[in-house]
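[job 0417] fold request received: cysteine-S-conjugate beta-lyase
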Amino acid sequence: MAFNFDECIDRRHSDSHKWQKYANKDVIPLWVADTDFRSPPCVIDALHQRVSHGVFGYGVVPQKLGTLLCERMRDRYQWHIKPDWLVFLPGLVSGLNISTRALTEREQRIVLPAPLYPQFGKAAKSAGRQQLPVSMHLVNDRWLPDIDGVIQQIEGNEKLLMLCNPHNPGGTVYTRQELEKWHELAKAHDWWVCSDEIHCDLILEPGARHIPFASLNEDAAQRTVTLLSPSKTFNLAGLGASVAIIANPRLRQRFVAQCAGIVPSVGVLPLIAATAAWRDGDPWLVELLDYLRANRNWLTTQINALPGLKMVAPEATYLAWIDAAGLDVEDPFRFFEQAGVGLSPGRDFGDPRFVRLNFGCSRQLLAQAIERMSRAISEG
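[job 0417] inference complete; emitting structure tokens
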């Protein structure tokens, strides 16, 4: 391999939020969705070159960045978008919050699958919006929403459907048929759609293919805000560069108006990093996916061999959703934390019986974590 993903980079004494959570504690942090891999050399080189200039005033989004993204969506996902559809943001979470506020009124409800990445629910709560959760269930070893079940709960005041594709947690990559079922529901009830597709490049399952919700048809395009970022793909989360793709000019105007005076523009260094990643980072990404896929396969076998734990292999992402209901413990998150492994608590996503494990790390570190988890279970 041209890139060394086995390299163990010491982040314990850095400014890493992931590692600082357990500063001065013997806990392996496998929680927040931030990998331990060095970012692509092309990104590091581009940042060095820009830093050497020495002046960091207000910047503008380079025209080539929009062109690169349009070409990337066309070539990877057969989705034909235009540069004037793009609204650049300093982070994807701000896009969730802006979508919530721009596309709903206070008396309207938001429809969203559950369990789900916590920032979706936080965005709704912050805006004072009620939520209609759609339960996720295992179907043939894939986490899928019970759309038929939620239809009976629709009251007529729902206005926004919030999707996460690939789904976090669980790692489901929705098929065209599954997305079309969502679209039928959104069209029938005249819902806007906000689709978080930040993990779209991290497809691990052979044969699975990411399909942007807005690419389904023209109606889907006109009712959707798609949120993307290079941050998960290329480990650039600390730099903060994201984008909302909005084909509908009226929708885009509402979104931009909600940003005014609240959401800052993207800094010059994040724009440089995003440009380099989308332009030159794919050779690195190919090898990253091979490494993550091997980690996923190894981890799935290891977890399912431990008494009381169950896990299905995620089709995408580097996040394992682990069912710990079989353990005789009150709080699986605390149980494993006390054993020296820091996971994400399932309660934050909507189900306290689960924990989420980030396997975006060296195999050596992952093996150490599994050894600690195994020892904790065996010792009771």
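[job 0417] notes: The chain has a mean pLDDT of 97. The domain at 56-280 is CATH 3.40.640.10 (Aspartate Aminotransferase; domain 2).
[job 0417] exit 0
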